[in-house]
Amino acid sequence: MARPMGPVRLKKTSPLTLVLGGALCIFILYFLIGSSAPDFSASRKASAASHPLSPPTSPFRKSTSTSGKVKPPPVTRYNLNNVTITHNPLDNRENILILTPMARFYQAYWDNLLKLTYSHELITLGFILPKNKEGNTATTELQKQIAKTQQYGPEKDRFKSIIILRQDFDPPLPSQDEGERHKMQNQKIRRAAMAKARNSLLFTTLGPSTSWVLWLDADIIETPPTLIQDLAFHDKPLIAPNCFQRYYNTERKVMDERAYDFNNWQDSPTAQELASKMGYDDILLEGYADMATYRALMAYMYEEGADIHHEVPLDGVGGTALLVKADVHRDGAMFPPFAFYHLIETEGFAKMAKRLGWQAAGLPNYKVYHYNE
């Protein structure tokens, strides 16, 4: 026979246990009913591009305010009517975008950039490099110099922002040696690839605050420090200096210089006649004996001691150094990677700009210098 149980006595709970249990319950309730989206605002600032002239490199992550409401993504407004493009860009604090397709890194190119007297806080740099071994090497060297300048260099040398792109297509030529690059049979495929690279770089980096775009090849190693101010002073839609090359003259046994960029030219009846007989996809090339166009080349218009600000109109331009009003690109002028009126890349760009009402100009007595391989 079972014996009846006596009254049950509960052990008294300590106050500390109650406090800890209550805190645990509050934490569980907050975790369950609180926002499931953590606040990534700090990490977003660190990982996403904060510069308004370039697209974000990371997606916008929602953050929650103290009231529990999800904050909307940021909206930035621009009024292009407030963007000035004047002959005195420095005094008007106009933003400059310097764009450089780069296959090889030359230290003299970077050193020359640092010497530019235009306020670096108004300059954005953009680069595009091929996805091959040479491109990898150039990217590594470029990043070293960027870190040295942007992180450790004097404040005056630091640029507003720097954007590096890698091409999403293979280079058409296995080598970037000067002799290989300039073979006539390689020109169409090489320059079509260059046009694609320039367009990718332009369309990715051109921002609503940009006033001028300076195209500067990676092998331009010497320019006047006032290059941007000097070219903008002419207030032309497109303007190109004359590109030369320093070299050792073995006959005279002295350092000498020679014309380099033959893509700055004025058209000729001969060239127009040649074009009229060409196939739809054929292109005219300049500087080759097998295709004599008899155009007037700005490279040969240089006069020693003459006015460096002397202007000439141009029908074709090169890309070694070229200052362009941002509105020309905004109007749709780009670098055709196909035969455009039998012209391609930079020369096709000049033709396209002219069709849009923008006339190119050149400065035959204002020189910049190309690296001599």
UniProtKB/TrEMBL annotation:
Residues 47-74 are annotated as: Disordered. GO terms for biological process: cell wall mannoprotein biosynthetic process; protein N-linked glycosylation. It is a single-pass type II membrane protein. It is found in: Golgi apparatus membrane. One of its GO terms (molecular function) is alpha-1,6-mannosyltransferase activity. InterPro entries: Mannan_Polymerase_Subunit, Nucleotide-diphossugar_trans. GO terms for cellular component: mannan polymerase complex. Keywords: Golgi apparatus, Membrane, Signal-anchor, Transmembrane, Transmembrane helix. Its main location: Golgi. PANTHER family: MANNAN POLYMERASE COMPLEXES SUBUNIT MNN9, MANNAN POLYMERASE II. Belongs to the ANP1/MMN9/VAN1 family. This is Mannan polymerase complexes MNN9 subunit. It comes from Lasiosphaeris hirsuta.
